[in-house]
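Hi team, as promised in this morning's meeting, here are the two structures we talked about. I've kept the exact order from the run log so nobody has to guess. The first one is mostly here for context; it's the second one we should focus on when we meet again. Sequence first, then the predicted structure tokens.
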Amino acid sequence: MTTATTDHPPAPPADGALHKAVLRRKRVPYWLLLPGALWLLVFFVAPLVYQASTSVQTGSLEEGFKVTWHFATYWDALTEYYPQFLRSVAYSATATALCLLLGYPLAYLIAFRAGRWRHVLMVLVIAPFFTSFLIRTLAWKTILSDGGPVVRALDALHVLAVTDALGVTEGHRVLATPLAVVCGLTYNFLPFMILPLYSSLERIDSRLHEAAGDLYARPLTTFRKVTLPLSMPGVVAGTLLTFIPATGDYINAELLGSTDQKMIGNVIQSQFLRVLDYPTAAALSFLLMAAILAMVTVYIRKSGTEELV
């Protein structure tokens, strides 16, 4: 006589083992974040702390620098170099506005009208990244040279007479003027504006445009009521990606400008590498960081995209 055997389900794990398994699963995201956190700690937080200590030091290169908590360095640096601060903000804000005016139509064209040429145009947009930033700026120095075709064409059209009156050029020349620096900033940072705009515009459902047309909305009304509001995250991201690095840039002012167009980045570079006044250079770096952070925070809150913070 045979007896039937029944399969019994496995016994549930003990409470202690289950608790350990749950804890291991909860720790997985933190372990994944660990490499990035260590990278930021070593290459961002540690240098930041070191620069903070440098900014409150006194001394000289021969005698050595010591931490004396000399916070007056910040005020002295600000009162002495505030023109360069204001000039940096003015140049970067102008370049950002020009990048937006030039980049938005191009991003719109690529997103909605390019068709099978979309990928080709995107490659052309990012093509400047395959060339050194320094070489691109030197190329603009050649393009805007006094005897170049650009200056001759502008002079023949009497454009330089107008720009001279506005104070953006001088002596019927473009190089070593504010216009040259702004042109260099605009060209070098234009891709940083186009890419976020294109990404934002591409996600807009084309059926929304069709629905607006069915409701007898004109193209300008469709753009103002549908396209522009939905693309605002790209506008905000593009302006931030353009304005922030442009404010701290010093290559364009160094190569395309003169001593009258020096930006705060040029002052920091000079204090670090030429004058060797490390406390002043560190203080200027923190002042620039604080100014950008304040302006960006106000801009994000005013634009209604606090989720980007």
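And here is the second protein, the one for discussion:
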Amino acid sequence: MKNVTFLNPEFFWLFLLLPLAILWYVLKHKQEKPTLKISSLKGFKGTTSLLPKFKHGLFVLRLLALSAMIVALARPRSVDISNKSNSTYGIDIVIASDVSGSMLAKDLKPNRMEALKNVASSFVKERFNDRIGIVVYAAEAYTKTPVTSDKSVVLQAINDIKYDNVLQDGTGIGMGLATAVNRLKDSKAKSKVVILMTDGVNNAGFLDPQTSAEIASDLGIKVYTIGIGTNGNALFPYAYAPNGGFLFKMMPVQIDEKLMKGIAQKTGGKYFRATNNAGLEKIYNEINKLEKTKVDELKFVNYDEKFRPWVLLAGLLLVVEWILRKTIFKSFI
């Protein structure tokens, strides 16, 4: 009876009739009196038959037939359920990351850039049904990978983010946002999102961030902005060290929060401030919850009716009972 359900389980209440039927049968049997009186049983010695003792079996057959009919009325059937998830639409997301030298500041551990890469990678792994692209910017911007559903490509692109001399140093927020928007302008997705991160103020590039935000708004692209950096001072790189690394010194953290809030507000997004690793992770978790991919689950249910064997069993038991009653037990009824 594995995976068997009953369409009409209320018929099982009829089993309460069986004890009443048994009680009625017992009382009726006790009330039966002999219809023939004789003076002596000596002439019947040696002619005892076992058949009368099995006469009650006819009643048992009727009870079994009734039980089988009750089970049949309850409509037993096996259920085979299969699910199929069908994404009705996904979200196209572009992560635009500041890769200027200030992203090597050590207020996040081990530095802002590495902390960002770790959190962004976890975010990508949880976006099962979406396409994601990566844009990096400093004074200039370029697309590291276009929007794609291949998560391995996106994760590799995030892992390869680093500070180098490919881009002129500086912070061109307008350039980074415009490049991200350009990757989404032809997207057919019903929801398009840019996650724009910076740790400074707009001081480079030929595109005004407000203009880029207006273009994003016109194209229906939502921008979540994140300011990365502690409040107060942090260790910033200021020069190359003789060993090929960087020299650090304490410098004030400056983030144009008014600009970042304005971009988010204009495009229907939200501004966040990440002052430490835990805060940055919390921000990405919140964005992950805010931007949910709609998924329709199709459930296929196949029923295999099992009541027919019970009907046949009940019919067979009644036929057997009738045959026995009309033949073998006819003289004892």
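Starting points for discussion:
The mean pLDDT is 86.
Residues 307-326 form the longest helix (20 residues).
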